[in-house]
Amino acid sequence: MSKLVQFVKESYAELRKVVWPGRDDVVSSVKVVIFSTVIIAAVLGLVDVLLLLGVQAIF
Question: How far apart are CA 56 and CA 59, in angstroms?
Fold first, then answer.
């Protein structure tokens, strides 16, 4: 049980050392993720449509 308590204390001490990002950094990162997701979804949608048209042309 003492090892568990020691682990929790050390974990808490390490978390206090973490430099958490500010609100501006988080908002900026979220914008990049959303933009990237939309672009990748559009590209994959276009590839899907082109492959569908190709398969329909063959059959």
Answer: 5
pTM for the whole thing?
Answer: 0.67
Q: What is the mean pLDDT of the chain?
A: 96
Distance, in Å, from the CA atom of 16 to the CA atom of 2, rounded to the nearest integer, reads: 21
Three-state helix/strand/coil letters over the chain: CHHHHHHHHHHHHHHHHCCCCCHHHHHHHHHHHHHHHHHHHHHHHHHHHHHHHHHHHHC
Rounded distance between C-alpha atoms, residue 24 and residue 54, angstroms:
45
